[in-house]
Amino acid sequence: MSTNSKLYLFVIAFLIAIFAFYNYLVYSSNGYVAVEKLSPMAVKGQQLFQNNRCWSCHQLYGLGGYLGPDLTNVYSDEDKGPLYFKAFLNSGVKSMPKFNFSEEEKDVLVEYMKQVDETGIYPNYDAEIEATGWVKLKYQNEE
Ligand code: HEC
């Protein structure tokens, strides 16, 4: 084997080793995925949210339709909150349709909003990129 091809093999082996090590770091770290589980009540709220297509006009964590505002932090917003949220549901405003939810349905929707609110801030500008490539966001419940 010539010196050149030995060097070539060495460089390839070195790159493979770095690649393997990097993958090990990325896939063995827990990352920062929020592993929050919704309570049974909030799951009912989530189902109502989906079945009534709130998604088509509203976003949670910035994702969804863009006709209406993002609802991620409606619950903890000082000027809004649960009563404000409920008020919108059966009244209908502008292009938001009027729904006929029972008190119980409104309560589970509020519970869903509460738990969404606890897991995220939107828009979230408070992020840092870690050496492993993960993006660390600040969560509401870390404050
Ligand atoms: C067809 C589109 C559409 C659908 C479907 C819809 N909305 Fe809306 N919603 C809107 C629009 C547009 C506004 C803004 C109205 C305004 O500001 O006057 C709004 C406003 C709101 C607000 C007030 C938000 C804020 O920050 O002021 C809440 C809460 C809300 N909607 C909840 C819901 C929920 C819950 C559902 C599903 C049950 C839903 N909406 C379905 C269009 C929609």
> How big is the Rg?
23 Å
Distance between the termini: 61 Å
Query: What is the C-level CATH assignment of the largest domain?
Result: Mainly Alpha
Tell me which oligomeric state these chains represent. single chain
Largest sheet: 2 strands, antiparallel
How many separate structural domains? 2
Instruction: Using the alpha-carbon principal axes, give the shape.
Output: elongated
User: Can you tell me the CATH architecture of the largest domain?
Assistant: Orthogonal Bundle
CATH superfamily of the largest domain: Cytochrome c-like domain
Give the DSSP E fraction (strand runs of 2 or more residues).
5-15%
Bound molecules: heme C
Report the CATH topology name of the largest domain: Cytochrome Bc1 Complex, Chain D, domain 2
The ordered string of helix (H) and strand (E) elements is HHEEHHEE
Outline the low-pLDDT stretches.
Answer: none
Would you count the extended β strands for me?
4
Helix proportion: 40-55%
Q: Your description of this structure?
A:
The chain has 143 residues and is mostly helical. The chain has two domains: 1-30; 40-119, Orthogonal Bundle (Cytochrome Bc1 Complex, Chain D, domain 2), CATH 1.10.760.10. Helices cover 45% and strands 7% of the residues. It has four helices and four strands, in the order ααββααββ. The strands form two sheets. Strands 1-2 form a two-stranded antiparallel sheet. Strands 3-4 form a two-stranded antiparallel sheet. Bound molecules: heme C (HEC).
